[in-house]
Amino acid sequence: MIPRYQKILFAVLLLASLGMGLKLWQLRDRAHKRLLAGETTAPTQAPEVAPAEQATLVAANDMDNSLIPQLHSLPLPTDPEARARAVLGKLLDLYAAPNSTHVVPGGAASVAQVFLLPVPGGTSGAHASDSSNQLAVVNLTGTFAASHPSGLETETLTLLSICATLRANLPNVAEVRFLVDGQPRPTLAGHADLTRTYLTADALPTPGNSP
Question: Where are the domains of the chain?
Answer without folding.
Answer: 1-42, 52-202
